[in-house]
UniProtKB/TrEMBL annotation:
Name of the molecule in the record: Glyoxalase
SUPFAM superfamilies in UniProt: Glyoxalase/Bleomycin resistance protein/Dihydroxybiphenyl dioxygenase
Pfam families in alphabetical order: Ble-like_N (PF22677)
InterPro entries the UniProt entry points to: Anthracycline_SecMetBiosynth, Glyas_Bleomycin-R_OHBP_Dase, Glyoxy/Ble-like_N, VOC_core
Residues annotated as domain VOC: 3-126
Length: 131
């Protein structure tokens, strides 16, 4: 026990967030609002044969994160095949850079972004030649 099995992204504008994650990462959504008693959409992040987990977008229950405040929670990082192409999709769909691309030498390219709802997430492209 203890393995991460689900995540929730808190959002102000559900349709805007669904569009962002759908366009950028290809996620699809299932309306689970009836079960949750609030706007709540299950996020299917990939096919069942791939390593990873599914999660949800849920209606934010308080104020959004303030600009420049320290991260208070988990930061989810998404694996990508092409870092630069993923960054371009993020920016084209209303996301912004929180921490620019940097090398994890000999391992990967990493960076952090803000989604349309002000949440921080990372992207990670494995690359043994990163430096």
């Amino acid at each position: 026990m203890g393995r991460l099995i689900h995540f929730e992204v808190h959002v102000d504008d559900m349709e805007r967030a669904k569009k962002f994650y759908g366009e950028v990462f290809g996620w699809s959504f299932q309306d689970w609002s009836e079960y949750a008693g609030m706007p709540y959409y299950g996020a299917v992040t990939g096919n069942e044969e791939e390593l990873g987990i599914n999660g949800a977008l849920m209606q934010r229950q308080g104020p959004p994160p303030e600009a420049n405040q320290a991260l208070n929670g988990y930061a989810c990082t998404l694996g990508v095949e092409d870092y630069d192409a993923a960054e371009a999709r993020i920016l084209e769909n209303g996301g912004t850079v929180a921490m620019p691309k940097y090398a994890l030498p000999g391992m990967a390219w990493q960076g952090y972004y803000k989604d349309t709802e002000g949440n921080i997430f990372g992207i990670h492209q494995p690359d043994a030649n990163a430096k």
